[in-house]
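SAMPLE LOG
Freezer: B-3
Tube label: C17
Construct: single chain, 396 aa
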Amino acid sequence: MNDGVPVDVDVALVGGGGAASLVLAALDRHGLAGLRVAVVDPVRRRGQDRTWAFWGRPGGELDGVLSASWGQVEVVTPARRRVLDLAPLRYAMVRSAPVYARAAEAERRLGAVRFDVAVAGLDDDGTRVVVRGGDGAPLVRASWVLDSRPRPPARPGRTCWLQHFRGWWVASEVALFDPRRAVLMDFRTPQPGRGVSFGYVLPVSDRFALVEYTEFSPARLTGDGYDRALRGYLGRLGWDPAALVVREVEDGVIPMTDAPFPRRPSPRVVRLGTAGGATRPSTGFTFSAMLRQAEQVAAALAGGRAPVPAPAYPRRHLWMDAVALRALDTGRVGGPEFFDRLFDRNPASRVLRFLDGDTGVVEDLAVMRSSPLAPMTSAVLGDAVGRLRGRLRRPG
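STRUCTURE (predicted):
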């Protein structure tokens, strides 16, 4: 560290957001107190800057910090309202503050070295990785680097959409929300010309909830566009926006693409989070895969193995996602119709496990059969042609 001499560590976490926070907590949980750890990120994460929602079985390691969980969710279309029982799963919400706090405590317990700077480069010689700061000076020499910074894909995808959203944490003076269930997708929002939109409601109590407007589409809206959409959605729900107090605002954008995200760009650099393929292309859901990555990394290090997590999703699921994205992008399938059929013709737990990459071939075939046959077949053929053209254009 002094005079340009880097600190030697076993593992360097580059980036300190959700993925790195989960890894730190997992390392601490596995009792890896003797592991030499460094964290390199210009921002010390704290407070409520984001909310993650995910599904899983009760009894997980995050149960103590959940803001809320629901055994039932609603999926709403203009034609009907469907209430889905998620058993044996549940839908859960965790806010960032307790996740960051657990990571800070794990960092302290692990005795991690902290560098509050941006990273300019990673020099991997196949044995060790030198992490360089913004001025090019070497900060850390690590056996492994876990890099969770946002990175572009290796090459453009055939379909490049975004999941983009704005959420309002709203408070009501009277009992207004139903804390027994969440609204997972409400497609009664005006649909964009190219894409899918929906609202959802995550109630923490009968007087406090996160209400969000989300689009799957190629481009973001303006700030005013999100606010108009949220006011319109509140009106659709029969709630007067003027009678609600907006306590907090959350914005976000997540890639939805069939482009490849290399999980291991060099021998001893491993990417996590969205950069490491944790984002599901067809939905933008990421958090469950980040949890799995963190647990697999910690378990591998505890067992003396390379901290390289398994692919977040099976290859056949990524292919199915690519086909679905192409069908939605070309307008062959409407978004509300696609998701309505998905939940109508499959048990909710199967759909959620499929979106988590946790279904086998037989269940995957059942999911495929629930899609509109003719337009999806056309999308399959289009995807195959696109892949062939991509291979022909690729050098070498």
